[in-house]
Amino acid sequence: MVQTRPQPGPRSTARTGPQKSPLASPPSETASRIMDIGERMARGGGYNSFSFREIAAEIGIKPASVHYHFATKELLGAAIASRYTERFLQALGAPDALAPDIAIGRYIEAYRGALIQEELMCLCGMFGAQIACLPETVAHEAQAFFERNMAWLETVFARSGFTPEAARPEAASLIATLEGAMILARTMQDPALFDAILARRN
Amino acid sequence: MVQTRPQPGPRSTARTGPQKSPLASPPSETASRIMDIGERMARGGGYNSFSFREIAAEIGIKPASVHYHFATKELLGAAIASRYTERFLQALGAPDALAPDIAIGRYIEAYRGALIQEELMCLCGMFGAQIACLPETVAHEAQAFFERNMAWLETVFARSGFTPEAARPEAASLIATLEGAMILARTMQDPALFDAILARRN
DNA sequence: AATCCTCTATCTATCAGTAGGTAGGTTGTA
DNA sequence: TACAACCTACCTACTGATAGATAGAGGATT
Predict the structure, then answer these.
(1) Helical H runs in chain B?
(2) What is the per-residue pLDDT for A29?
(3) Contact B151/A at CB under 8 A
(4) Burial classification of residue B103, based on how many CB atoms lie within 10 Å of its CB (0-12 exposed, 13-18 middle, 19 or more buried)
(5) Shortest CA gap A44–chain B (Å)
(6) Residue B117 pLDDT greater than 70, yes or no
């Protein structure tokens, strides 16, 4: 059997639906669900663990229809990461709205809830581990998550008595411990290990 | 083109190559190279980042030939993880062969070398993040890595003055921080961040 | 010495399944 | 009518995996 199929066709005008550029119109109901499902899958197994096919199947539409909402997987991945970061920081509130101790406790609780209640990894911890094989814009979003989280914690630690130079490493250290604790607790199938690691911190 | 090949012949005994069961014969040169390349790819992007095709291409054999050495991807993944753990612990030596401070320094240096010199993630940190979507035996190997590493560090911390109850959380905490620090440093493309995080520890 | 057998390591050819992606048509609603 | 949202029907590329064949090496039998 030799190829008898028709040629690809000359035209290649990219005609995709709503361009998911940042700050465009608010996502439609379907677009939201696509992101919800994609996020959950990505947080379970990484960037190649979510597919247009599986997402479409879960929603009840065809895989091609997902492309209407997000033209490429890279765009979808970046949108998921961006939304994740935005929600994460919004849930934390302003870094100087609470007493430093309370703010740190709330920060730890954000990770704890993701691990224990949602039973998922941190999206950007996952993406961060895979950073070397991610599309550029997705990698950039993962980077932005950590940059903004470090800035948030830096402010908190600076207010709690750390010198300006010491606040940033302290922030990075807490984030690193939290991401690592999630990995360890999940791998060992022992949620209590997460608490044990963070209790030790003080 | 229709089939013109000679008849299959009577025999059809399942004839797979060397069964890669643990503690079989030492791996052949080719099997070693397969594991080397697979490990590097997995440490760069996770479990779905290494494929029989790419490994074969790099060695210069056909994808099917890789199956001769490792019947399935799961077997290959588990073999890579097992070898990784064995080498890691062997490089560390006995946990009571050195003064505790030196032993801890050596442990940290093992991660640091992987990040800075090899420019790769810890294999089992990567697999640990993806644990929810790994084949059973591979997940088990990742678990074994952390279990044995915690035991090693627990011994060290117990010798350095920690109570038996406090030694294990201390061990888990160090491992978590190291894995998280690798992710952060890689994501931010800032190797110095790894050192900053670990310098803060004490 | 010649024959036979078995093993290793590879090949070619092919499979079913899934990946992301594209072209163009249909439908419901404002 | 216009557009948003979805469809059918493909495509190319790649996934892990299998079947059957083969070249060459080594040992055993005749």
Answers:
(1) 29-45, 52-59, 63-69, 73-92, 100-116, 123-129, 136-159, 164-187, 191-201
(2) 82
(3) no
(4) buried
(5) 6
(6) yes
* DSSP structure string for B77-109: HHHHHHHHHHHHHHHH--TTSS-HHHHHHHHHH
Tell me how far apart the alpha carbons of residues B181 and B194 are, in angstroms, rounded to a whole number: 5
The residue-averaged pLDDT of B120-146 equals 95
Name the CA dihedral angle for A82, A48, A135, A143, rounded to a multiple of 10 degrees. 40
Say what the pLDDT of residue B21 is: 46
Please give the pLDDT value at position A50.
Answer: 92
User: Nearest by CB to B183, which of A129, A186, A189?
Assistant: A129
CA angle B70, B75, B81 (to 5 degrees): 115
Owner of token pair 């590097």: B40
Beta carbons of A199 and B172 less than 8 Å apart? no
What does the pLDDT look like over A25-81, one tens digit per residue? Answer: 677 888 888 999 999 999 999 999 999 999 998 888 889 899 999 999 999 999 999
CB atoms within 10 A of CB A4: 5
Q: Two tokens at B30? A: 């080719």
Distance A191 CA to C26 C1' (A): 51
* The pLDDT of residue A119: 94
- What nucleotides of chain C have any atom within 7 angstroms of a protein Cβ? 8-14, 18-24
A101-105, A126-130, B3-7, B64-68, range with the lowest pLDDT: B3-7
Listed as ranges, the nucleotides of chain D within 7 A of a protein C-beta are: 4-12, 14-22
Contact status, residue A41 vs residue A50, Cβ threshold 8 Å = yes
- Delineate the domains of chain B, giving CATH numbers in brackets: 29-201 (1.10.357.10)
Q: Is A83 exposed, middle or buried (0-12, 13-18, 19+ CB in 10 A)?
A: middle
| Average confidence score pLDDT of chain A | 87
List, as ranges, residues 73-102 from B with C-beta within 8 Å of A.
none
Dig out the tokens for B179 from the structure: 């894995």
Contact predicate B47/B134, CB 8 Å = yes
Question: Do the Cβ atoms of A142 and B187 come within 8 Å?
Answer: yes
